[in-house]
Design brief:
2 copies of one chain form a homodimer. The first copy, chain A, has 222 residues and is mainly α. Chain A has 9 helices and no strands.
DNA sequence: CACTATAGTGAATGCTATACACATTTTAGC
DNA sequence: GCTAAAATGTGTATAGCATTCACTATAGTG
């Protein structure tokens, strides 16, 4: 129950992650090097293994952090407008998704880019973190739906397990999935630089797509 | 002007790329290893440098091939229906985009996933290859527009340079960009496994999104 | 047929992750 | 306050990686 040493330990683990994020920003997610981290920390590389079992374990920790960070950005965006301004809240969440991504391209690449060579994410740890983002959206949509402000066309069946476990309606699940794919398409192309020269004003373009999406979902302007 | 030796050389280069693609399918794009390729070819790794200046040079070649392969898949999809069945041709191109991606996930990751650590693509070589896919779409949309079958809302300015260089109209450029972001969002999430459990029937879901897109663009059923 | 350009080899360099044995420091129990 | 245990950190060793270079064997060309 001692916390003197445990606290120190946590601090070191955070230091490692912090430097790792820094390096990712420079050299990219897959270029993460324990040696480089140790060098910057002024410590022997073998010592890092006291804090993370392997490079993969560190990557997993970074992935989970990244999912949480993005979800937090979305939550903040969704919480800013008044409670009953559903469209503004949705817009806030979607804007948070993109803002976080363009501000943290390497961490975005880590969670949504190509999988790292030998690495396989331990689903039991990363899945819950990944689900948090969707939860933010579901929350807003649920409330809008309860107020009768949502009229999305859901002409396709959705996974029963998803509906059961999240408790959302068919239309909420459908709109969530459609919304995510659209939003994500723009964001991932923008972050990886594939929209350069194709679009004039990336922010305006994104906003327009979000507006279209909400119109389609029957979410009226507040 | 001899071609005896040159042909042999080209054949070997293709062999290398072939094995590289094979390995990418197993270990992922960033996990590509010259050593592993040489081992499988039963040759000394240093010998590979006679054919590609570096690992990056090989990667560049694979990227260009991948862009062309996907564009070819789209072209084939667009060419299958009758010339004046514009909606079917668009659908064919979009279906080709996704089909190629799910059939070649590693190569898809190579061109649209997170950038490889130290690697920077030589834009002068990869850009033209990357643009080919969009050209396929532009071609169909141009013809549909000329026939008065396209009514896309283009409420945003598009890059003048793009319009000038491709010769497409504002609405075609706009619909192309919107379409790509949507399509790509679904495909990239599907290929990287992020839609598992979120969507019941991935193909039906994709088709529905494509249909929505074309309806929005004013492309009538043929 | 003889010459030469090329293909291919093996060794060397300097990265990387990881494992292990050892030394040092810090904490906990008495 | 002292001692035993636990945790931290180091140095070394192994194995895999990309890349360079000097060298040899060979195949294509004139």
């Amino acid at each position: 129950m001692t916390t003197r040493r445990a606290a120190q330990r946590d601090r070191t683990r955070d230091d490692i992650k912090h430097i790792a994020r820094q390096q990712m920003a420079e050299v990219g997610a897959a270029g993460l090097s324990l040696n480089a981290i140790a060098r910057q920390m002024g410590v022997a590389v073998s010592g890092l293994y006291r804090y993370y079992d392997s490079r993969d374990a560190l990557v997993t920790a970074l992935i989970i952090d990244a999912f949480h960070a993005q979800a937090a950005a979305m939550q903040a965006g969704a919480d800013a407008p008044p409670r009953n301004a559903y469209q503004a809240r949705m817009m806030g969440a979607m804007w948070g998704y993109r803002s976080w991504a363009v501000a943290h391209p390497a961490e975005f690449a880590l969670i949504y880019g190509s999988p790292i060579p030998g690495y396989v994410a331990p689903a039991d740890q990363t899945r819950p973190a990944a689900a948090r983002a969707m939860t933010v959206v579901y929350e807003v949509l649920n409330e809008a739906e309860a107020m009768g402000k949502l009229h999305a066309p859901a002409d396709l069946p959705m996974p029963p397990k998803l509906l059961r476990e999240t408790g959302v309606s068919l239309q909420v699940a459908y709109l969530g999935a459609v919304g995510w794919t659209r939003i994500h398409g723009h964001v991932t192309l923008e972050v990886f630089g594939h929209l350069d020269g194709l679009v004039t004003d990336l922010e305006a373009f994104y906003r327009a797509e979000c507006a279209t999406l909400m119109r389609e979902g029957g979410l009226q302007p507040d």
